[in-house]
User: Which sequence fits this backbone?
């Protein structure tokens, strides 16, 4: 376990899990949101993002946390281990609400406490029906990878405790 991706619905706790995985393994952690977003909430050029991601993937060891469907297959091809936090919608919505207004190491800005990004919430609500099947199918296309699918935080915590 040297090249690890951590994926899952927004709010599932990918970054929190990834930090704990980093603490347990010492493997350098990269958050896709930090590679993609500027502090003012704008994104960098696609070519610059791909260059950053490619340079990261070329390293000997890494943990990369984040979804970014457009680069998921590239990351699966490069990893040896994929961890999918496949949690219920309610858990993910609670996760999103709990992080509002807090400074985070995985995001270059603080999400406001007030207001709701309806498009983002709809993405989260539709993740299980629209995104999850593609993720499961893609993971199944790479039988040489170690794939862990956790259905709740207890399973993920148990995995971390065994490291």
Assistant:
């Amino acid at each position: 376990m040297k090249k690890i991706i951590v994926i899952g619905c927004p709010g599932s706790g990918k970054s929190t899990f990834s930090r704990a995985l980093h603490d347990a393994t010492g493997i350098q952690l990269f958050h896709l949101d930090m590679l993609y977003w500027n502090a003012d909430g704008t994104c960098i050029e696609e070519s610059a993002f791909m260059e950053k991601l490619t340079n990261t993937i070329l390293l000997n060891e890494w943990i990369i946390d984040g979804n970014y469907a457009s680069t998921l297959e590239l990351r699966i091809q490069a990893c040896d281990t994929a961890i999918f936090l496949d949690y219920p919608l309610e858990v993910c919505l609670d996760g999103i609400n709990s992080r509002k207004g807090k400074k985070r190491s995985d995001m270059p800005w603080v999400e406001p406490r007030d207001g709701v990004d309806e498009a983002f919430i709809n993405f989260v609500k539709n993740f299980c029906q629209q995104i999850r099947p593609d993720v499961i199918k893609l993971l199944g296309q790479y039988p040489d990878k170690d794939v862990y699918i956790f259905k709740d935080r207890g399973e993920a915590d148990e995995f971390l405790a065994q490291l």
Notes: The chain has a mean pLDDT of 94. The beta strands are 3-8, 29-31, 62-65, 81-85, 146-150. DSSP finds seven helices and five strands in the chain.
